[in-house]
Amino acid sequence: QDSSDDIEDVSLFDADDDVSRRSKKSKIRHPVASFFHLFFRVSAIIVYLLCELLTSSFIACMVTIILLLSCDFWAVKNVTGRLMVGLRWWNQVDDDGRSHWVFEARKVSTQGGKTSSEAESRIFWLGLITCPMIWVIFAFSALFSFKVKWLAVVVMGVVLQGANLYGYIRCKVGSRKNLTSMATNYLGKQFLRQTMATEDQAAS
């Protein structure tokens, strides 16, 4: 194992065990967190798309977008992930200079039920996955349209939102080995389904 990529699992704050178990799974129990989970990242995208119409100052647009992206990175990493899906991650360096990935996960209730709302979970993962993909599209668009001055902005969007996506995926599925295994299993299942569908068509 690479010494620069140690993984440590710790339990989430004990206060989360007091969450009511009677809440409906479809209910959004943290509306403020759900709002700000999407607000900063969607606002950064809107400002990027409309900045040339709103102002002629590139510096003002760039600073506004970077501030929104920074606020989004902090909020998603430290607040909304913990409240909405019971996950949190960070990377720390010990005294020996070794980098450690630390993951937190909310404890499962004694009855084995989930304390996370399904509606909040869908909002969280949809926003977490969709927005970085949009910034990747912006990056290719800026590159192919030779808008060099915007490359730094879109790269910042890709890096900050991509870092949160990467951290939460690893927090959800585990190490790189587990992530690779999951991808392999998924491709294997898809191949098996296609093979079975082809055999059914041939038999009919």
TrEMBL record:
Coiled coil, from the record: none
Keywords: Membrane, Transmembrane, Transmembrane helix
Pfam families: DUF846
Subcellular location field: Membrane
Transmembrane segments: 31-50, 56-76, 123-144, 150-169
One GO cellular component term: Golgi membrane
Membrane topology term: Multi-pass membrane protein
BP terms from Gene Ontology: protein secretion; vesicle-mediated transport
Family the UniProt entry places it in: Belongs to the TVP23 family.
Protein's recorded name: Golgi apparatus membrane protein TVP23 homolog
Organism, as annotated: Rhabdornis inornatus
Species classification: Eukaryota, Metazoa, Chordata, Craniata, Vertebrata
The gene coding this protein: Tvp23b
